[in-house]
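RECORD TYPE: inverse folding
INPUT: structure tokens
STRUCTURE:
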């Protein structure tokens, strides 16, 4: 049987990437692992995130995956470099999609909503140096917990309250775009649209799948036929997280 692609996130956020990946690469098999037991990663130190990520991806490596997608901006910033140096398979990472958002700017601001850890790491500093004109980082405290507990409906009062608390202080300035710099936040897209109606909402999901496709193509490892599919594995709390993951896959 052909080798599967491993995909990892701290929790259910990476399901937003898996959804796109399954649609764009219908002949591939994906094994998704969410470390829900240890989420959120975004309030941990870089060292803690690196350790959690290394532990969590073992399950995927044991399944002999042909590529590893870090469907998590936070884990990428903390661990991608170490993993690439150690592993002999392609490691595809993510970063807040500030670059595409930068080109959507028409004199207003770009809000970059991401986890506190992502925004404080070296990788994001470099991104800001290149594309940070008019960009305002916003630490998404409370948002991952909200999504992990299934509050994803656009009119969910808890989700809207967290978003208002985070964004209202910034909305007295014209906002051209909001970067969804954490894969969990993609599930808050419709709620966000209500709060920042005129702004483009930019995520890096499709770009990540395109990068995965390119790397597999270079290695002659792309599946051009046959049935694809996916498996979902939470790191604990299966009775809660499996149904939530399935629900998010279907949104
Ligand atoms: N989904 C992750 C990301 O893309 C982070 C979530 C967390 O804080 O655990 O950054």
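DESIGNED SEQUENCE:
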């Amino acid at each position: 049987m052909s080798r599967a692609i491993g995909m990892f996130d701290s929790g259910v956020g990476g399901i937003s990437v898996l959804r796109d990946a399954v649609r764009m690469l219908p002949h591939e098999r994906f094994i998704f692992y969410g470390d829900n037991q240890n989420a959120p990663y975004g309030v941990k130190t870089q060292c803690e995130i690196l350790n959690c990520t290394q532990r969590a991806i073992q399950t995927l490596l044991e399944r002999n995956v042909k590529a590893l997608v870090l469907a998590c901006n936070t884990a990428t910033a903390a661990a991608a470099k170490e993993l690439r140096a150690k592993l002999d398979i392609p490691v595809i990472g993510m970063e807040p999609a500030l670059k595409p958002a930068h080109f959507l700017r028409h004199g207003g601001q770009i809000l970059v909503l991401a986890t506190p850890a992502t925004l404080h790491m070296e990788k994001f500093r470099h991104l800001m140096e290149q594309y940070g004109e008019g960009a305002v980082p916003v630490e998404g405290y409370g948002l991952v917990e909200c999504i992990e507990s299934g509050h994803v409906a656009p009119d969910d009062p808890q989700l809207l309250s967290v978003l208002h608390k985070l964004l209202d202080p910034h909305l007295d300035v014209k906002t051209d775009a909001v970067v969804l710099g954490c894969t969990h936040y993609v599930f808050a897209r419709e709620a966000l649209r209500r709060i920042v109606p005129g702004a483009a909402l930019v995520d890096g999901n499709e770009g990540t799948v395109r990068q995965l496709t390119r790397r597999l193509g270079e290695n002659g490892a792309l599946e051009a036929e046959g049935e694809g599919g996916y498996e979902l594995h939470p790191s604990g709390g299966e009775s809660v997280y499996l149904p939530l993951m399935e629900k998010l896959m279907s949104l």
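NOTES: The pocket of D-glutamic acid is lined by residues 9-11, 13, 39-42, 72-74, 115, 118, 144, 182-184 (CB under 6 Å).
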